[in-house]
Amino acid sequence: MADTSKWVEGKVVGKRVWTDVLFSLQIEAPVEPFRAGQFGKLALAINDEIVSRPYSYVNAPDERPLEFYFIVINQGPLSPRLAALEPGDAAFLAPRPSGLMTLADVRDAETLWLLSTGTAVGPFLSILKTAEPWQRFRHAVLVHAVRHANELAYREQIDAIAAAHAGRFSYLPFVSREDTGYAIRGRVPEAIRDGRLEARTGRALTAEASHVMICGNPDMVRDTTAALEARGMRKHKRKEPGHITIEAYW
Ligand SMILES: Cc1cc2nc3c(=O)[nH]c(=O)nc-3n(C[C@H](O)[C@H](O)[C@H](O)COP(=O)(O)OP(=O)(O)OC[C@H]3O[C@@H](n4cnc5c(N)ncnc54)[C@H](O)[C@@H]3O)c2cc1C
Predict the structure, then answer these.
(1) pTM of this prediction?
(2) Are residues 56 and 143 in the same domain?
(3) Is 55 touching ligand 1 by the criterion CB < 6 Å?
């Protein structure tokens, strides 16, 4: 029997199928409070062993059920099994949250830039659904970079955020492998270097005016950080406040 003593048992109460590989699970579980932007751990007992992976909370800290948005990695040990779960099924969760990609200790600025790839839009939705960014920043920009337009999930939640903060929120999708007429076709670091990100949002991406959070694909996190460093920004540390907060998903 797998040792489940370090885990709390949760129950799947909802499931959303976005594409053949993109899923959201809603789970009721007695986990400890978290800050928007943090992640928990989901786990299943597989062959008598607990297999766990980190997943960002998509729900705001005061929203229930808990929600996780994930992609199925075909050969991956856990994600295909998570995608097979249905309402009523059980999953284990770590009781404690983890992660430093939050607004704690970040200095206030004119614009909060939230730059994500793929499933990493999730923690930024959690942040945008709280009051904090709207109290501490004049404007928030959400960038969601994907390959195909059908991966631009959570449009209803994004529309609701835009409606609640009219004139203070910009949503800018990037779609790399098809023309859409509304998304930027290309990659985020290039759009920073050639000025398209600023032109499309009408916001200045400068060290004085910005805090930038970057989450998802490690290549995008690295190349975007380099593009921002070339503009005089530096990584944020608790003891040495900067302008860039990052989290790579692998
Ligand atoms: C802090 C943190 C938070 C995370 N939050 C999420 C989340 O909210 N949603 C989510 O889908 N994943 C998230 N991940 C990744 C997740 O933990 C798993 O790695 C992923 O679900 C695959 O698990 P697996 O066991 O099937 O395969 P693994 O053996 O863990 O991964 C196999 C390979 O899949 C690729 N991969 C992993 N995650 C992704 C991804 N999200 N998108 C594209 N390729 C990927 C990488 O190349 C990786 O080496 C997070 C990772 C970290 C470190």
Answers:
(1) 0.98
(2) no
(3) yes
